[in-house]
Amino acid sequence: MKRFFFIAIINFILPLSAQSWTIETSDSTKYSNAKQLSIKNNTLVYDVSIDGERKTIETHLDDLSLIEREKDSLDLIYSVLINYLYFALYLLLCKFAVALIKHFRNVKKDCYKASEHLRQLYDTQYNILAKTPLHSYKLKNNKLNPGRYYYKTWVLSSVFLIVFSSFMLSNFLENFGVLATSLIENPIRINFSHVLASAIVFAQLLTGAGYYIFYNNQKKSKEYIWPLLKVLMMFSLICIAFIEIIIWANLSASFDMTKVLGLGESDVIKNYINYFLGIFGLGLSIIGFCSGYLVSQYRGDSGDSVLLNNIRYVFFTTILVCLLYLPSLLLLALGILFLLIISLIEFIILPGNFIFEKFKRNKSEPTLVVNNEVDEVKGDVVPEVADEFKYNKEDQDVDDSYMTDSPEKSDDEDEEDNYNYRDSSD
Question: How many Cβ atoms are within 10 Å of 209's Cβ, its own excluded?
């Protein structure tokens, strides 16, 4: 492998055989300023100077440990040429960077404009789709108070009453085997007893709502059906309240309140104490009836749904932020990135631009122009030369005025002068 390596090096440097090399053999013998390298039968042939005499030495490739080219004047010239080449490339890049900077500035402006356009579009659509409807919803609902407040209060009370009673009454209803069967297992267990208990409470709410509806229709119409329906609603309430009283009374019997209170077996109020929750069931029945009645009464002041309006606001705000607001921020960040790139390029080409400016200034030095019509003295001209030019110019102007200010003689005056001249000659 080592032999092939040296063969490759020698084959590569054969065109440079006139250069100087440093060769070191495996026995640490080192020859400097070796020239005329060549390969012959796996042997390196080269000339070296030993004691002032040039000798030809042959070394087998396996005995070579180092071949290194020595630096000479060609290396210096090469490095200088490379540096000049790099400098020329740098100046070329400086000229190209002008067009590149111009392009990047256009891209930066486009990014800023697009970002501003998307931001304005976001503001407009946000006001139309989210902000304005929410503001209108709040103004409209504020005008409905206090009726809207009453409506919300009794609706929440009805929901709480249904949930609470459904789980409490189901403990008694589960004693009936069929009702203990589960309807839903996950994520929460719901039995048929829960559904039946909820239906009982919901029926109480319906009796209150029905009573309110039939009562208003009775005031508007003289038909006898409306009083009858009112009576039926009250009868239904009594029946439902009776069922709920029994259920709550049986639930309270499991507590054995006589032992808790320390009452004897012969006390008269023992049975009444054991079934004390029956009164609580009666109160819940009355509350359920009143809740249904008041929810129906203030239904007209309910206004728009809080849940739907909030969902609408969150939905449109999220969509607009994802489609318009975030892209505007990305375009703004991209414009800032291009601004930083432009600043970096301008800093890199600053020396090249300085060289170009000095070259242009030296090439375009001002010259002094002497002309009868153009009088220009550049600021860079030596002051003594400028004063001399001005003095000569004033003398020339005086001579010109002398030649131009003398009046021309008419033809008659010329003939008279000629006549006088002939007379004088005679």
Answer: 21
